[in-house]
Structure formats: C-alpha cells, structure tokens
TrEMBL record:
Native source species: Pipistrellus kuhlii (Kuhl's pipistrelle)
GO biological process: attachment of GPI anchor to protein
Assigned keywords, A-Z: Membrane, Transmembrane, Transmembrane helix
GO cellular component, one term: GPI-anchor transamidase complex
InterPro entries to which the protein is assigned, alphabetical: PIG-T
The protein's name: Phosphatidylinositol glycan anchor biosynthesis class T
Length: 376
C-alpha cells in the first residue's frame, strides 16, 4: 500500500475518486453485478523534488515501498512507461530491471511498458520490499507532451461588475475525423444569461448545434441549464460564448469572503471519440490492468467525459463596514444633540446675589481703615 496522506500534499496535483457502476452478467442483462473502482491520480514534480534531477523512486515519492500485493486482488501489477528509453540502456537505468514488457499502439505510436507482477515471487524479494527506481545516466531530452484529440478551455471575459461573457473553447486536433460533442453548462442564478447572445463559431464560421435545450433559472431556487450537441470539425477550435449580467444579492447571501469571488461549476463534455483518443493515457483508470484495455479496435468508439476548469466570478459587493460606520456616526450625533437638549430641559439658572460679610469681615475692614488700607 503506497497511499500516505501526508505525501499527497507535497504533490502538484492529486485526485481521489470512487466509481460504482452496474455490469451485465449476460447478453440480455437479466442479471447484473456492481463494480467498485477506486482511483488515485497523483502528479509529482520530480525535477523540483529531486533538486534538478528527474530521477525518482517509490520511496522518494510516497515515503513507502511495496511490500505485498493487494490481498483482495487476483491481479496486482505495476506498469512503467519506458517507451523513449526501451532501446537505449545508456540513458535510463531501472532498478530492479523488469522481468517482462508490454507493447501496444496508443495515440498512433508504439508504446512500451515495463511490467512488475506483484504476485511473482521474483519481483518482491525475500525482504518483502519493492522499491522501483529510475535513474538517468545522462540528462534526458525535453519532449513536448502529446496533445489529446479532444480537450477544452473555459474563461470569463469583460470588465466592470455589471456584465461579462462566458466562453468555452473546444479543441478537436484530429487531422481528419469530426465527431459530435454534448456540452452541458450549469450556471448559477445570480449570473443572468442572455440566451439571444449565444454564439458558436468554428474556423471563423457559424456552427449551428443540432440539439439545444435551455432551462432558465429561478432566483434562489434553481440555476440555468444549457445543453447543446455540437459537431466539431477536424483540426478546429470551436468557440461557444454567451453574455451574462451580474445580479445583486442580499447581504445575508454573501460568503464570509465575498471579495474573493464566487465559483462557477465547470462545463461537462460528453463525446463518442475515435479509439485512438479514448486509448490515451488519461483513460488508463478505466482498468488498472492493461489486459482489460488491449487490444483496441480502430473502428470502435469510446465514451469520454471531460470537465473544464471552474471559473471565479466577482459580483457587486457592498461595503460590509458601512453598518459599523453608520452606528458610530449615529451614536455620536445622538450623544451631542440629545446631551445638549437634555441639559437645556433639566438645568435651571438662578441669579446669584452678592452676600454681605460677617462680623469678622467687618472688624477686619475697620482695622484696615484705621491703617489707611482699602477694605476687603
């Protein structure tokens, strides 16, 4: 077991999911079974963690090694892609060396994988420890990662806090195949969509969807729902854009950090793509073992679902410090005005008459007169 929660937060990206689906046990699907699939996708930046080197090992990444296969599994294997260095032993060194390899065509290229069968006693040695290590004897050449045939981007544009535009870019990089894509957008109600501004363009020309369904939002009850079936031409970029207006929320509906913005859920792309697209490495999680994926027929198509990145939209935000300022100003005005008015109503004024001196003062004045000194 390699999963160590602490190490996941040292990665550039990690995603854990649980998938449950029914599986037909016969051709008529009169009896079904349930399949439970757990996936964990982790991206390590070996160049940063390795201090400028791309060498990696299981212990360096997970702080653990493989000690035994999964006790509940009938097959437990580890696959390592060694396509670029399978024929060049002077560049890459694998420890321990693989006992077998697997080859197949993915994305139109021949791929080679080193296979480690954990049920093989020769793989996990007597110390019950398997630590895969890859070392480069010389710096590897920088290669651009392959671009999938179907991918998408989403962004928000505009200025100010009144209106804006949601845009989605759909990329079909296949050189000669066109295929339809079902685009689903769920937009919060506080972004009021202008459906008449919906535009779809491919290669600079209008691309009319073959199916469109729109369900308007209801304030504080349900969001907008926009669903379209769009045909993506080969080697094209299709842009789907729609304008919106920001609504004003009640002051109790804002989050504790309203100036951070509000998140808009990503778009969902569903498509039947050619087999080469569906066999890209992203779909390896369809089955953890390659025996269930290969061989792949070029004439078949596979269902693929993609998600774009979520958006962060700023809404008109009131000054939440204004109540404090109003309270301070009001209390000051009330204290000054009410205090003065209360003094005028409750204070009485009297004329103070001069008081004559007593016997001691008179005697003192007589003595001062006798001496020629002015009286008190």
């Amino acid at each position: 077991m390699l999963l160590k929660a602490e190490r996941l937060f040292h990665t550039s990206y990690h995603s854990q999911a649980v998938h449950i689906r029914p599986i037909c046990r016969n051709a008529r699907c009169t009896s079904i079974s349930w399949e439970l699939r757990q996936t964990l996708s982790v991206v390590f930046d070996a160049f940063v963690t390795g201090q400028g080197k791309k060498d990696w090992s299981l212990f360096r990444m997970f702080s653990r090694t493989l000690t035994e296969p999964c006790p509940l599994a009938s097959e437990s294997r580890v696959y390592v892609d060694i396509t670029s260095y399978s024929q060049d032993n002077e560049t890459l060194e694998m420890n321990p060396p693989p006992l077998s390899t697997y080859q197949d065509v993915i994305l139109g290229t021949q791929r080679t994988y080193a296979v480690y069968d954990l049920f093989d006693t020769a793989v996990i040695n007597s110390s019950r420890n398997l630590n895969l290590q890859l070392k480069w004897r010389r710096p590897p050449e920088n290669e651009a990662p392959p671009v999938p045939f179907l991918h998408a981007q989403r962004y928000v544009s505009g200025y100010g806090l009144q209106s804006g535009e949601l845009s989605t870019l759909l990329y079909n990089t296949h050189p000669y195949r066109a295929f339809p894509v079902l685009l689903l957008d769920i937009v919060p109600w506080y972004l009021r969509l202008y459906v008449h501004t919906l535009t779809i363009t491919s290669k600079g020309k209008e691309n009319k969807p073959s199916y469109i369904h729109y369900q308007p939002a209801q304030d504080r009850l349900q969001p907008h729902l926009l669903e379209m079936l769009i045909q993506l031409p080969a080697s094209s970029v299709t842009k789907v854009s729609i304008q919106f207006e920001r609504a004003l929320l009640k002051w109790t509906e804002y989050t504790p950090d309203p100036n951070h913005g509000f998140y808009v859920s990503p778009s969902v792309l569903s498509a039947l793509v050619p087999s080469m697209v569906a066999a890209k490495p992203v779909d390896w999680e369809e089955s953890p073992l390659f025996s269930s994926l290969f061989p792949v027929s070029d004439s078949s198509s596979y269902f693929l679902r993609l998600y774009t990145e979520p958006l962060l939209v700023n809404l008109p935000t009131p000054d939440f410090s204004m109540p404090y300022n109003v309270i301070c100003l009001t209390c000051t005005v009330v204290a000054v005005c009410y205090g003065s008015f209360y003094n005028l109503l409750t204070r009485t004024f009297h004329i103070e008459e001069p008081r004559t001196g007593g016997l001691a003062k008179r005697l003192a004045n007589l003595i001062r007169r006798a001496r020629g000194v002015p009286p008190l």
